[in-house]
Structures are given as structure tokens and as C-alpha cells.
Design a protein that fits this description.
With 172 residues, the protein is of the alpha/beta class. The protein contains six helices and ten strands, in the order βββαβαβαβαβαβαββ.
């Protein structure tokens, strides 16, 4: 059986059946286009686990982490060492709080929120090198990484749907 981009399946040399497959309704990109897209994606995004590993390693990670949420959200929980700068305040305060020579990794609540994207855009428009942390604070906490609240530091058990249960590295 051969599946073609136009969602036609050739089951035999003499009969053809049309498939209503939403995955292949639009043909996959060429390998070159896919490599360009996914390579570019990695220059725009950072994974929660990668950010945590870089921050946990000895020495300077080479970037700063920026929480773009409100003060109430920040108080509820944030990544230790992160800079708090709500998106609306970036145009007036970024120059004072950030060094243009140091890349910035933005985060907001989680995958259902585009606040980190808006913060990254605002910073890029001001001339900062920036990446967005995929998963945001939600996945930071769900993967079991330590965070700070107005009451102190906390850590939750890793959610086995977001992080390996018995290993430190998911092998991605």
C-alpha cells in the first residue's frame, strides 16, 4: 500500500481508494524545508529541562531567565534566579535590568499562554537576543524543578507524563 500526498491510497494496480487522513491531507515538507524549519525553531525555543540543566551546572549558564508574568503570578511561584519583568513594562525597564550582550530566556504560565512569546517579541524589538522557554512555569513545576514562592522554596514530585519517572534524562 502506498500513501501519496493527495491522500490517495493505491491498494492494487487496478483499484484506488481516497483516504480522509488529516495528517497527510497536506503533504509533509521536503527534508530540506523541514531541516530549515526545525533548525530555526531551536534558535527561538528552549526546553524546560535544558534550562534547568544549564542553571544547575557550575558556572555562568550564558543567559538570564525572565518571568514576564504579573507580580501576583510571580509571588505564586517563579524560577529561582529569574528576573521579574512583566511584558507591559519591558519597553521602559528592559534597558535598566538586562544586558544586551546576554541572551534572555522568557517564560510565562505555560503552553496555553503566549505571554512569553509577547515578551520575547518586545525584547527582540529592543535589540535583545531572546529565546522562549517551552512549557513555561507550568512545566517547570510539573517536571519537578525547584521554584520560589513568597513563602519560600518548593518542589513537587515530577509528573510522569512530563518527565521520566526513574531517570534524570529523557533521552530526547
Amino acid at each position: 500500500m502506498t500513501v501519496t500526498a493527495d491522500t490517495t491510497v493505491n491498494t492494487t494496480a487496478t483499484s484506488t481508494t481516497t483516504v480522509t487522513n488529516p495528517v497527510l491531507r497536506v503533504a509533509p515538507a521536503s527534508p530540506a524545508a523541514a531541516a530549515a524549519y526545525f533548525g530555526a525553531s531551536l534558535s527561538f525555543h528552549a526546553d524546560v529541562s535544558d534550562v534547568a540543566a544549564a542553571l544547575a551546572a557550575d558556572g555562568d549558564p550564558g543567559f538570564v531567565v525572565l518571568d514576564s508574568r504579573s507580580t501576583a503570578s510571580w509571588d505564586q511561584g517563579h524560577i529561582p534566579g529569574a528576573i521579574h519583568l512583566p511584558t507591559a513594562l519591558i519597553p521602559e525597564q528592559a534597558e535598566r535590568l538586562l544586558d544586551r550582550s546576554v541572551p534572555v530566556v522568557t517564560y510565562c504560565w505555560g503552553p496555553g499562554c503566549n505571554g512569553a512569546t509577547r515578551a520575547a517579541l518586545a525584547l527582540a524589538e529592543l535589540g535583545f537576543q531572546v529565546k522562549e522557554m517551552l512549557g513555561g512555569f507550568e512545566y517547570w513545576a510539573r517536571e519537578g524543578f525547584e521554584f520560589e514562592t513568597w513563602e519560600g522554596r518548593e518542589r513537587r514530585a515530577a509528573d510522569p507524563l512530563t518527565a521520566p519517572a526513574d531517570e534524570e534524562d529523557c533521552g530526547c
